[in-house]
Write a structure and sequence with these properties.
The complex is a heterodimer of chains A (186) and B (375). Chain A is built from five helices and nine strands. With 186 residues, chain A is α/β, with parallel strands linked by helices. Chain A has two domains: 69 residues, TusA-like domain (Translation Initiation Factor IF3, 2-Layer Sandwich), CATH 3.30.110.40; 86 residues, Rhodanese-like domain (Oxidized Rhodanese, domain 1). Chain B has two domains: 101 residues, Rhodanese-like domain (Oxidized Rhodanese, domain 1), CATH 3.40.250.10; 264 residues, Ribonuclease Z/Hydroxyacylglutathione hydrolase-like (Metallo-beta-lactamase, Chain A), CATH 3.60.15.10. The chains are: A alpha/beta (186), B alpha/beta (375). Chain A: Keywords: Transferase.
């Protein structure tokens, strides 16, 4: 099971209905949340990815199970510039983090992590960080990573405020990562 | 305005009759770039349907008002939606029934010419996929070469002509489309021939197609003769019909030549391909009309919708027959090949009889262009 915030059943619907429904469902999804779309139309695979790109949402991935395609799309606000200023002062490059001795903490949504993460990285989505601090060691070196460095910037600040001592924000983040990806789905 | 419905046959007429048409293709950009409906005088606009969910107003200035408009998508659902939006905006438009899926399957039989003693040769043009199949008929008997998988098209055609299908040939083990050959043979009691060298992994019975094998149609003895011509595959065999037509399979096309790599043995087969094109075919009469198993571009169609050209003309005009240097030739047919056809390995397995996918799965496998040639 891939984790998502909102689910849409578009099974049995032919093109263009899966996308028509997805577009509508997206209105009910909060920014940063993940929508799962269940569809049986094969064309939905290429079209949902292309549609997401057109409107500026993040198409995370899809997998097939018993003839049903499960798609995951994270809602983005195309009006907001992705390159928001990052203010956490301790940053580290992808390469340095990969070669470092610390823990790589992936704060993207669970679905994003499922569809490909750095081998060995630990997943705590940013929204769950506050309640899962006990899973982390305050003296350990932690490299916080997300897709573009924005969420990890916020997460790094949050951790520092909680008294964590060796926190780094990894830049540019997963968008600049070209190494092996570990996936939790086929 | 109302929305009109066009069948694939209607569109085929526009292609063959050289008509103008404006195609609004609402599939995604990748699908359009890969494969579309080709016509001599067709103009295109590709806007994915999911960019038109809020209306078509923004694209109206890009749509002409003086030529016919056809909206096309993968299956038809999205094209209906877009066609209706355009109709509401006051345009007269049509959509393609069954979408690209039906276009891929549509076959137009065209008469190539007369055979001696009253016989006829037909070419079955599958416009959407670029596949060409053949049926020679004479005095109540028919031979079929390189039939595509829609067996009923051939069987019905034979019934209409009042002929009995006696011989069914495949020039080679196809990798770009699923053969209907052995199914037609088993339904009609005809013999099914396949070159043994292509058939080592085949799991059904067939009659070996050997060099120089000749069958006769009717009493007036129209000859269909086999000519071993390897290179696209190791078993590839051509046919000479009535000393007039040369059916080249996937070895020689009108504006290109065969590719040797679809069975994974490009390096081994280059020499064979060269020998077939530069020596075996050279020894044949230049007045033979070359009839290939594919066309790649719409320019290869003749005015009457057939695909065929005099062998002597091809020796002059076809680039692939005019590469003097063997090394240059080798590099041309092994290094710079176009992408391989969709699902070509799976298709080979279907044609070997190893797997039997459902109709729906077969349609899916055959989607897209054939890409059997090197230009």
């Amino acid at each position: 099971m891939v984790k998502s915030d909102v689910q849409l059943d578009a099974k049995g619907l032919a093109c263009p209905m899966p996308i028509v429904k997805t577009k509508k469902a997206m209105n009910e999804v909060a920014e940063g949340q993940v929508l799962e779309i269940q569809a049986t139309d094969k064309g939905s695979v290429a079209d949902l990815a292309a549609w997401s790109k057109t409107v500026g949402h993040q198409y995370i991935g899809s997998h097939e199970e018993n003839g049903v395609f499960y798609h995951y799309i994270r809602k983005c606000n195309p009006e907001v510039n992705e390159a928001v200023e990052k203010t956490f002062e301790h940053t580290i490059s992808n390469e340095e983090a990969l070669n470092g001795k610390g823990l790589i903490l992936d704060v993207r949504e669970a679905a994003e992590y499922t569809f490909g993460h750095i081998p060995g990285a630990k997943s705590i989505p940013m929204g769950e960080l506050a309640e899962r601090l006990t899973e982390l060691n305050k003296d350990e070196t932690i490299y916080v990573i997300c897709r573009t460095g924005t969420r990890s910037d916020l997460a790094a600040k949050q951790l520092a405020e909680e008294g964590f001592n060796n926190i780094y924000n990894v830049l540019p983040g997963m968008t600049g990562y070209e190494g092996e990806l570990q996936k939790e789905v086929e | 305005m109302t929305v009109n419905i066009w069948t694939a046959a209607d569109v085929a007429r526009k292609v063959i009759d050289n008509k103008e048409l404006f195609i609004l293709d609402v599939r995604n950009a990748d699908a359009f770039a890969d494969w579309k409906i080709e016509g001599h005088k067709f103009n295109y606009l590709n806007i994915p349907y999911f960019e038109l969910l809020d209306g078509v107003e923004e694209i109206l200035p890009q749509i002409p008002t003086d030529i016919e408009i056809l909206v096309v998508c993968a299956k038809e659902g999205s094209s209906i939606m877009v066609a209706e939006l355009l109709a509401e905006a006051g345009l007269e438009v049509a959509y393609l029934e069954g979408g690209m899926k039906s276009w891929s399957m549509y076959i137009e039989p065209v008469k190539v010419g007369e055979l001696s003693g009253g016989g006829e040769l037909y070419q079955f043009v599958r416009l959407g996929k670029g596949c060409l199949s053949y049926m020679a008929v004479n005095e109540g008997e028919a031979a079929i070469i390189d039939a595509v998988r829609f067996t009923d098209v051939f069987i019905k055609f034979a019934e209409e002509k009042g002929v009995q299908i006696k011989h069914v040939f495949d020039t080679h083990l196809h990798a770009d489309h699923i053969s209907g050959g052995r199914h037609i043979a088993s339904q009609t009691g005809a013999a099914y021939y396949l070159p043994s060298k292509d058939a080592e992994e085949v799991v059904f019975d067939f009659t070996p197609l050997t060099d120089d094998l000749t069958v006769k149609l009717g009493n007036s003895e129209i000859e269909v003769g086999a000519l071993y011509s390897p290179g696209h595959t190791i078993g590839s065999t051509s046919f000479v019909i009535d000393k007039k037509y040369l059916l080249t399979g996937d070895i020689l096309f009108i504006d290109s030549i065969g590719r040797p790599d679809l069975a994974g043995l490009a390096d081994d087969w280059v020499r064979d391909l060269r020998q077939t094109l530069y020596s075996r075919y050279r020894s044949l009469a230049e007045d033979l009309i070359v009839l290939p198993a594919h066309f790649m571009i719409i320019e290869e169609l003749n005015e009457d919708g057939t695909v065929g050209k005099r062998l002597g003309d091809l020796f002059v005009e076809n680039h692939g027959l005019n590469v003097e240097d063997e090394e240059v030739f080798r590099s041309m047919v092994t290094d710079n090949l176009p992408p391989q056809p969709n699902s070509y390995e799976e298709i080979r397995h279907v044609n070997m009889g190893k797997v039997t996918p459902s109709n729906e799965e077969q349609t899916e496998m055959e989607i897209g262009p054939n890409r059997c040639a090197v230009r």
